[in-house]
């Protein structure tokens, strides 16, 4: 009986983690450089040639209400202005732009010697400085998203930095053929921290790390880890990396945020090195991906979690707060550091429209969590779910009341559901 329970529990965790990984893998990348005038720095900054960007490019941090933008869209002069207009005309004030994605390609001319030597730079934004200046002109808070250890490009060109297979001795790959670099290797850590420093130097207000973890899907038992690898060591490695990165970024006066699986608010032993409590203690902000579509059938008692956006987000954030509060961090401090990724895409029934998006925001706000980010793989955000900036209190009042929950379909979501999106560029 105990064996059966253990098998079922393992399946649930792996399925949930794998689905989250699937959705995040559909993303893309961003950026480019032209050196802004700046001042000379000290310490680790001296090892990089691009001068520190002037403080005039920074904006005061707001209560973040943001959207994710792929590098392809950020670099497209036909599409990016529409997003600027959306932010100008709604309560949005923040943009999260991809700098490095899960394939390992860096989407701007980064001042990173290793990136240049292996050819990982793919300029998807021709002039990052101009983009940053445009965001500053519109008083938009700028977050640079950097995918860390899932890095097929670096792994293939530097197999000595990759996780390897016990059975073949070759690069280990997940079920979709993607490779991971080893979080244990200092050169891998330094490669990503240097990219974060480069982004900070160019004028981003905040650095956001994603895939800050070990693999979650694939034949995990075939990964050749060091002999002392276990969950405790994996957690200490990931949290130690956050501490190291934050120290390296401190001269730039940028915030550091990290993305984590939604399951980390529910369980401390998800097997990927992410411990919600330890990470929220170290980062400035933490963004659990509480997409209702990513929870398995039966989560929090719901037959179809995707059909219960308010309830799932409410329960996940309740757990996040509960496990984070202690004598060092009050409930108010914890709530100010939690910034969830919310679902503005459709993955199986029901279709996600204005009400489904807005009630997720409502669930966060009812916990006293004021900041949030929206994710859509095609970068098509639901304007009707957002409050116009000039009269936020009066608009969508019907969605802010106690009986605002929409009629929800109870059609079961099957694991075979695929994203109903026009693009394949997706957190």
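^ structure tokens above, recovered residues below v
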């Amino acid at each position: 009986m105990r064996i059966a329970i253990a098998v079922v529990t393992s399946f649930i965790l792996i399925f949930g983690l794998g689905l989250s990984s699937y959705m995040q893998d559909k993303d893309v990348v961003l950026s480019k450089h032209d050196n802004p005038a700046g001042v000379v720095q000290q310490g680790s900054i001296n090892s990089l040639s691009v001068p520190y960007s002037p403080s005039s490019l920074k904006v005061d941090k707001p209560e973040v209400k943001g959207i994710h933008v792929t590098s392809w869209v950020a670099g497209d002069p036909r599409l990016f202005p529409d997003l600027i207009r959306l932010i100008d005309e709604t309560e949005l004030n923040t943009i999260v732009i991809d700098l490095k994605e899960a394939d390992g390609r860096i989407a701007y001319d980064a001042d990173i010697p290793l990136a240049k030597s292996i050819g990982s730079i793919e300029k998807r934004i021709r002039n990052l400085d101009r983009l940053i200046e445009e965001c500053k002109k519109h008083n938009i808070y700028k977050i640079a998203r950097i995918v860390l250890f899932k890095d097929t490009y670096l792994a293939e060109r530097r197999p000595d930095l990759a996780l390897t297979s016990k059975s073949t001795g070759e690069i280990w790959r997940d079920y979709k053929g993607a490779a991971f670099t080893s979080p244990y290797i200092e050169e891998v850590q330094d490669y990503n921290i240097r990219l974060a420093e480069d982004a900070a130097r160019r004028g981003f207000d905040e650095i956001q790390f994603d895939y800050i973890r070990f693999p979650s899907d694939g034949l995990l038992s075939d990964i050749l880890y060091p002999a002392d690898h276990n969950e405790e060591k994996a957690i200490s490695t990931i949290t130690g990396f956050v501490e190291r990165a934050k120290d390296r970024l401190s001269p730039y006066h940028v915030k550091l945020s990290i993305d984590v699986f939604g399951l980390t608010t529910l369980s401390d032993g998800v097997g990927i090195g992410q411990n919600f409590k330890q990470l929220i203690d170290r980062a400035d902000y933490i963004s659990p991906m509480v997409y209702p579509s990513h929870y398995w059938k039966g989560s929090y008692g719901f037959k179809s979690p995707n059909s219960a956006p308010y309830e799932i987000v409410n329960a996940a954030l309740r757990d996040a707060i509960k496990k984070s509060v202690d004598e060092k961090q009050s409930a108010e401090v914890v709530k100010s550091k939690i910034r969830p990724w919310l679902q503005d895409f459709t993955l199986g029934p029901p279709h996600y429209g204005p009400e489904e998006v807005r009630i997720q925001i409502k669930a966060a706000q009812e916990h006293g969590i004021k900041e949030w980010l929206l994710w859509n793989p095609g970068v098509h955000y639901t304007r009707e779910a957002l409050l116009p900036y000039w009269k936020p209190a009066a608009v969508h009042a019907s969605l802010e009341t106690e009986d605002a929950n929409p009629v929800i379909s109870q059609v079961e979501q099957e694991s075979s559901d695929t994203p109903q999106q026009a693009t394949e560029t997706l957190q």
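The radius of gyration is 21 Å.
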